[in-house]
# Entry
Amino acid sequence: MVAESILRAGLKTTLTTTDLVGLGEKYDGKVRDCYVGKSEIHLVATDRLSAFDMVVTTLPFKGQVLNRLSAWWFEQTANVVPNHLLGTPDPNVTRATRCDPLPIELVVRAYVTGVTSTSIWTAYERGERVFCGNRLPDGLRKNEKLPAPILTPSTKAPKGAHDKSVSRGEILAEGRISEADFDRCAEMAMTLFAEGSRIAARSGIILVDTKYEVGRKPDGTIVIMDEIHTPDSSRFWYEKSYAETFGAGTDPEGLDKEYVRRWLAREANYRGDGPPPIVPDDVRIEAARRYIEAFERLTGTTFEPDTRDPASRIPKNLGLS
# Structure
């Protein structure tokens, strides 16, 4: 585990934005700066953290964790579901095949949980028993495992706007995607979630839920893109303590950004409306620690952050300087 002194020093040098001239047309996502070329795209994972569809703070070395962990997952699952990865020329950068993004996010959930307005628990608690077209049984408790994982698609909102959970029927009715493409994407998501759950379980981690983004390669192949099974896109719980916390009616111990979401909701009464509050350094450090632990547990390797100035390191590694 990275020493706290290094994490605290990293608070002052988080990567908030990039300006990589000559790499392609820039598009800013919530977390990644994307540089789009003719046939390739470079995704720079910054240290920005989004919650409630808003960028709320930065975490030291978060971008390196996301980029390296996502590349690891892409490599582990390439024989199961195709993806866009070509390489990682820098700890913060992924080089990938340029794809045309499909206008949906594929969210797979295995537990009834969450604190956001789009979470399955929020809907269930207010009495809804059909969520994104999936019928839910009565009597479920917060954080309880569902009878089987379910697919709950989401719209892709612009930065600063809120995503909306929708059903297959609603997506098809809006003409966002063809029926054949949607069903192929759904099959890929459920297959990848099953494989991710199997691999995570080897490390004593429960893959609670996750989201996938999909795109179409120039040859027409639909692939998974952006990231997979990171603490940003997924919810991870410790398997060893889940039964105890669930029995006690308390929230499970997690290794993801839900820690920050809960702090925002409970301590700052913030759920995405208006400017976000200032997140204390101790909360940022603890969140970074959880991200790093997730990386180390899942990959079975030690996370060693590159502490060099990313403003000079990244252009050099990409051959831009």
